[in-house]
Design a protein that fits this description.
- The complex is a heterodimer of chains A (64) and B (470).
- Chain A contains 2 helices and no strands.
- With 64 residues, chain A is an all-alpha fold.
- Chain A starts with a helix and ends in a 20-residue tail after the last helix.
- Chain B is 37% helix and 14% strand.
- Chain B is built from 14 helices and 13 strands.
- In chain B, the strands form 2 sheets. In chain B, strands 1-3-2-6-8-7-12-13-11-9-10 form an 11-stranded mixed sheet, with helices on both faces.
- In chain B, a hairpin with a 2-residue loop joins strand 4 and strand 5.
- The longest helix of chain B has 27 residues.
Chain lengths: 64, 470
């Protein structure tokens, strides 16, 4: 998995879209981390969140 | 008792010594600074010291006390402040080459201002991990904080200098911040107490943000009661932080009622996901079992509970904070990638790999989790876990995050925003501290502190002092 060219390409694209241009060694490290990151993200969708809204903070009133 | 012998006294003990004229703030500051001269080159506690200003303030508060004014238990107490919090004395670096030097030019944030108003004396800014995330990085020109119990081991992060400074008797209390455990982990690894307050109880303006919806500012100290004394001063809304709740006004006392004990309290033991799980060392589990025994002997009613969505709430913390941190650091990462330390840039850049939908789902998991975990508190008053499944890692293991992250049992409570206190609960056979985590429902911080205090009345782990620091 560490050397999966598809994973590396995915990571490169996402970094490029974000305007990041890390050196090759750092891209490789991020590509190694990506499968684990993806597994953790997929795990979030196991939780039956139903219609729950995100626990974000948005102030309806103007802040002082 | 000399001022040097008082270095390991609690805040409340020092307050009594000051009130009774057994010492002065000037003597205390001199003793702490002399200890720092000796120990800081080894421990890497400070990023900056304010010796002159601290001695001047100490003389002023001594004069005040002499004239009959008493501002409370923090009057004349020296403190350390994690260097992601703005202070009047000097710039904030967040232990990074990247942070704009003008950040923090406005001076004290509300929490530091409140401590100062209560008479606390800022000795200096303490070390952190860069931008309060990651692990030790020797590639940048900043001190690497070492554990006073064994200097080949890390302090944990990210409130590292505040944690090791208290353990080594360089100040009796200080401020940290906690986004995934950054108060509780160094408290655990260094053998001191640390409290992550309820989200929204303490204003976090004046603190370099990491994860906006996960960040908390709170105290580290030798004892739970000392944490309560600091929380008494720093809690309460401030208009500069819209996430800080207004209905929890200042003046609530967390010290009041702290002596009530645990007799009859219902304590939920979340052990299947922590102490009995694959990421907890046997020595930590043994300390945890001893802690359960002590609490039961003190009259608490223990029952095991199944903690819902543990792994998902753990992940919702790191994924969410990485996305939020990336939002704050994106431009700097684009322009100054190499100026960030390796651990920091890789951790934060992972935020670019998380989609907007995934971030929203992490936030939905938090809401669902709050309801599910909140329901546990119909049948229990507090819940407990080990704070971490391991003792402080050796430096050469500190970067092994894939093994280390699941062994820290703090992040779910950042996802939930519930208050969580870490207190020392023994030592492993190599002499490194283990820690007990006490969690209460939102805004029941006083209850967690009360349980921690009760535990510290029947144990003496919090009084132990590393050989190196004596």
């Amino acid at each position: 998995v560490d050397d999966d060219p598809e994973v590396r390409q995915t990571v490169e694209v996402l970094l490029r879209v974000a305007g990041l241009n890390p050196p090759a060694a750092d891209v490789a490290a991020l590509a190694r981390a990506y499968p684990g990151l993806s597994r953790r993200i997929q795990g979030l969708y196991r939780v039956p969140t139903g219609d729950d809204s995100p626990a974000l903070v948005f102030q309806a009133e103007l802040e002082r | 008792m000399t001022a040097d012998q008082l270095r390991f006294e609690s805040v409340l003990g020092l307050a009594a010594a000051l009130r009774e004229g057994r010492t002065t703030s000037v003597e205390l500051v001199e003793a702490y600074l002399a200890a720092a001269d000796r120990l800081d080159p080894t421990l890497g506690t400070y990023l900056d010291r304010y010796d002159e200003a601290a001695l001047k303030t100490a003389a002023e508060v001594d004069a005040e006390r002499g004239s009959g004014r008493d501002r409370g238990p923090l009057h004349g107490i020296p403190i350390g402040v994690k260097d992601i919090l703005a202070t009047n004395e000097g710039p904030t670096t967040a232990q990074s080459l990247v942070l704009d030097p003008s950040w923090g030019d406005q001076g004290d944030g509300p929490v530091v201002a409140r401590l100062r108003e209560a008479g606390a004396i800022v000795l200096g800014k303490t070390t952190t991990m860069e931008f309060a995330i990651g692990y030790p990085d020797r590639s940048k020109p900043f001190p690497v904080p070492a554990n006073p119990w064994n200097t080949d081991h890390w302090t944990g992060g990210s409130s590292s200098g505040t944690g090791n400074g208290i353990a080594a008797g360089l100040f009796p209390t200080g401020l940290g911040s906690d986004t995934g455990g950054s108060i509780r982990i160094p408290a655990a690894y260094c053998g001191v107490s640390g409290h992550k307050p309820t989200f929204g109880l303490v204003p976090k303006s004046g603190c370099v943000p990491l994860g906006f919806t996960y960040d908390h500012i709170g105290p580290l100290a030798r004892t739970a009661a000392d944490c309560a004394a600091v929380l008494d001063v720093i809690a309460g809304s401030d208009p500069s932080d819209p996430t800080c709740t207004e209905h929890r006004g200042r003046g609530v006392s967390f010290l009041e009622g702290i002596e009530a004990g645990v007799a009859g309290l219902r304590i939920g033991v979340a052990r299947s996901v922590t102490a009995d799980g694959p990421f907890c060392e046997a020595a930590v589990t043994a300390c945890f079992d001893d802690a359960l025994h002590e609490l039961a002997n003190a009259g608490a009613r223990l029952r095991e509970i199944e903690f819902p969505w543990w792994n998902e709430l753990h992940d919702a913390c790191f994924l969410g904070l990485q996305a939020e941190a990336f939002a704050w650091h994106r431009q700097a990462l684009q322009e100054r990638w190499d100026d960030f330390g390796y651990p920091t840039r890789l951790t934060i850049a992972q935020g670019a790999l998380i989609s907007g939908g995934d971030y929203a789902q992490a936030q939905r998991v938090r809401r669902t989790g709050r309801r599910a975990v909140g329901a546990l508190f119909r049948d229990i008053d507090v819940l407990i876990t080990p704070t971490c499944g391991t003792v402080a890692p050796a430096f050469h293991n500190a970067s092994e995050t894939s093994r280390r992250l699941p062994s820290i049992f703090t992040p779910p409570f950042n996802s939930l925003g519930f208050p969580a206190l870490a207190v020392p609960m023994g030592f492993d056979p190599s002499g490194l501290p283990a820690s007990l985590q006490i969690v209460a429902p939102p805004f029941a911080d006083a209850l967690a502190l009360r349980v921690g205090h009760a535990y510290q009345q029947v144990t003496d782990w919090h009084t132990r002092v590393p050989q190196l620091a004596r």
